[in-house]
Design a protein that fits this description.
Length: 182
């Protein structure tokens, strides 16, 4: 029975969520599986991967073949490296302690890279938020300035209209007595 390590799709339309499973190669994509090895959520940045590395290594040593995407995920989480180191231990090239030390060093380095990426994303998000806040402040100041100018213009028009009304009223009162004298 050929075994594949592959992704099994879950989640709703447009929001995929995958289980990483060891399954018979002849079973359906979302069908029966032998063992669930972990989960993969590509909707987050960086993508969140939860993987049972020891279980994946066991399946790889028993002959399971990962699909291309599953192979990339296993490589990212270090399952392929651990399998490689286990092969070296079997052949006698390494001791168990040396293999474990190399794997731990690799995990620490990988965690540093992932942490740096998450920090960079958080910093970029904070900068974008600050830029948006500055743009909003500038727009509010421009809106307030435009309102003040419009208010001043309205006051000038109102005072000019009052002056015109007063002048018209004075001119009308001056002409009205002259009309009565005739």
């Amino acid at each position: 029975m050929p075994v594949k390590i592959r992704l099994q799709r879950h989640g709703k339309k447009g929001k995929p969520f995958y289980w990483i499973v060891a399954a018979d190669a002849r079973s359906k994509r979302d069908g029966k599986y032998l063992e669930k090895l972990g989960t993969y959520n590509p909707n987050t940045n960086p993508a969140s991967i939860d993987l049972n590395v020891d279980g994946a290594v066991t399946w790889l040593q028993n002959g399971a073949q990962p699909t291309d995407t599953a192979k990339a995920i296993l490589s990212y989480k270090g399952a392929l490296l651990k399998n490689h180191l286990a092969g070296g231990v079997k052949k006698g090239a390494l001791t168990e302690e040396q293999a474990e030390a190399k794997f731990t060093a690799w995990l620490d380095e990988k965690a540093g890279k992932v942490g740096a990426k998450t920090d960079g994303l958080a910093k970029a998000q904070a900068e974008a938020k600050a830029k948006a806040l500055e743009a909003e402040k500038a727009a509010n100041e421009a809106r307030i300035a435009a309102a003040v100018v419009a208010e001043e213009v309205a006051e000038e028009v109102e005072t000019a209209a009052e002056e015109v009304v007063e002048e018209t009223a004075e001119a009308a009162t001056e002409e009205a007595p002259e009309a009565k004298e005739e």
